[in-house]
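Below is how a single chain appears once it has passed through the pipeline. First comes the sequence as given, then the structure the pipeline wrote out for it. We keep one example in the README because the format questions we get most often are answered faster by looking than by reading.
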Amino acid sequence: MSQLAVDGFRAERDAILTVAKGLTADEWLLPSACAGWSVRDVMGHMACTLHGVIDPAFLPDTASGTERGMEPAVAERRTWPIEAVIDEYETYSDQAANVFASVQDAPLSETMLPMGELGTHPISILPSTFLFDGYTHLRNDILTPTGSIDRPQPPRDEMRLRPTIEWMIAGLPWMCADALSGVVDRPIVLRLDGPGGGAWTIAPGGDEGRVAVSENASPDAAATVHSTDHDFVIWGTRRAAWRDIVKIDGDEAYAARVLDAIKII
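Resulting structure:
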């Protein structure tokens, strides 16, 4: 799985660079689907975070929240020539891919990495984390139909989607801890179709009051939520309303309360 994530990150990196290097000056200034950010702002965000993998001095300060902490670096890069933003992304995404590959073997792969409100995870999950970021920003925020850039969507294949979903499932108990507290009182199954799909049970009883997420479907689930893997990336990050995408079997009212509490960042 971890090597798959490295391969997927590299493939999505190539897709992002192909789009970036083909944009016109006017297209860079078009709005993205990230509220308040242009296409170039999204690129600047991805460039900065990957720069921070190589040089922690460039990591955004997320003490006030992950999303809010991204704004200063994005604002700074609005003053840069777009060629400098592309170069930063190309240079540090390549170096980051090499770092991601280097942390896949034990015992280093098992080292736990605190990531603020995103949770504490084995360091080997890093390529999945940044693949998720690139996949989401390119597919939803930059490219049509939700973004402004009319270019073909890259493949939605296993090496990109399985690690992306891996990160979302791993981070869900941490990122949604407060929202899900008191909501999840019975098991609920999330079933995703597609190359990154599978079935997971979300239930009470996780560590430190968080929900517990386990692979496979519990026979005692109060409801089952059906979606595709790609659509989960979109509604799970609240870029689209889940009500327009998912199908629910079982206790629909309970499932709705759980889904309303999910926001992956």
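The chain is about 50% helix and 10% strand.

See the next section for the split statistics.
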